[in-house]
Amino acid sequence: MSQLENKIASTLAILEAAVRDYAPVTFANSLGAEDMVLTDLIAESGLNITMFSLDTGRLPQQTYELMQEVRKHYTLPLHVYYPEAAHVENFVTEHGVNGFYDSVENRKACCYVRKVEPLRRALATKHAWITGMRREQAVTRGTLEVSAFDVDNGLQKFNPLLDWTSAEVWEYIKANDVPYNALHDQFYPSIGCAPCTRAVTPGEDIRAGRWWWEDADSKECGLHVGKSSALKFAAIN
């Protein structure tokens, strides 16, 4: 077996173990390249794993186009969760529509409203969730484990692509004709909300285009680390 074939077999084994030991299981699909690999693997395997995505209300048009393509390409339904309108209104009233640029605290509060709170609704009835995070992606992800208890959300969390390289992700996508976000072809290796994402230049870190005005060690939205954003959210509501 090739190295990629070994990685695929290992990933499928992790997904199978998650379903066997922690059903019901759901997959949080960010529609990035890694998550499109997982979309394809889960759909093709027929494993009993549901799939959802978070529409923050400020995603790039290319992400919405991919979201629609996923619906057409796969039989596995993609459930979409949205932020609570009142929470968005409160944030904008307090900080302005682009107030997340003003401070890390404001940015994390915006992420909480648009991502973390909807995520918790999506996970509320599940026993485990799947993500496409990889150690190679950022300094904040170097200590991740393949499987660990998610204290913040109260369920088991699996990162089955943890040790995949970016080259392996793209090898799988190309070999299997997996749909992907058109922004990846415009030097966007990591894609989030439109106002918080930019293209990177050759040699830059793959997440340099995310919240580029912040230090690298603060570049998380709260979906995968800590509760600081939740505390900030509580203070503005």
UniProtKB/TrEMBL annotation:
The annotated pathway is: Sulfur metabolism; hydrogen sulfide biosynthesis; sulfite from sulfate
Q: Subcellular location, in the record's words?
A: Cytoplasm
User: So which domain of life are we looking at?
Assistant: Bacteria
The cellular component terms of Gene Ontology attached to this UniProt record, alphabetical and capped at eight, are: cytoplasm
Under the heading SUPFAM superfamilies, the entry gives:
Adenine nucleotide alpha hydrolases-like
All copies of the Phosphoadenosine phosphosulphate reductase domain together span 27-199
Active site, per annotation: C221 (nucleophile)
The record's cofactor note says: Binds 1 [4Fe-4S] cluster per subunit.
Please name one Pfam family that this protein belongs to.
PAPS_reduct
Cofactor list: [4Fe-4S] cluster
Q: Name one GO molecular function term.
A: metal ion binding
Q: Where does [4Fe-4S] cluster bind?
A: C110, C111, C193, C196
The main location is: cytoplasm
Catalytic reaction(s) noted: [thioredoxin]-disulfide + sulfite + AMP + 2 H(+) = adenosine 5'-phosphosulfate + [thioredoxin]-dithiol
Any idea which UniProt keywords this protein has?
Answer: Cytoplasm, Iron, Iron-sulfur, Metal-binding, Oxidoreductase
Report the record's Gene Ontology biological process terms.
Answer: cysteine biosynthetic process; hydrogen sulfide biosynthetic process; sulfate assimilation, phosphoadenylyl sulfate reduction by phosphoadenylyl-sulfate reductase (thioredoxin)
E.C. code: 1.8.4.10
Classification via HAMAP family = CysH
What family is this?
Answer: Belongs to the PAPS reductase family. CysH subfamily.
Q: What does this protein do?
A: Catalyzes the formation of sulfite from adenosine 5'-phosphosulfate (APS) using thioredoxin as an electron donor.
The protein, known as: Adenosine 5'-phosphosulfate reductase
Q: What is the lineage of its organism?
A: Bacteria, Pseudomonadati, Pseudomonadota, Betaproteobacteria, Nitrosomonadales
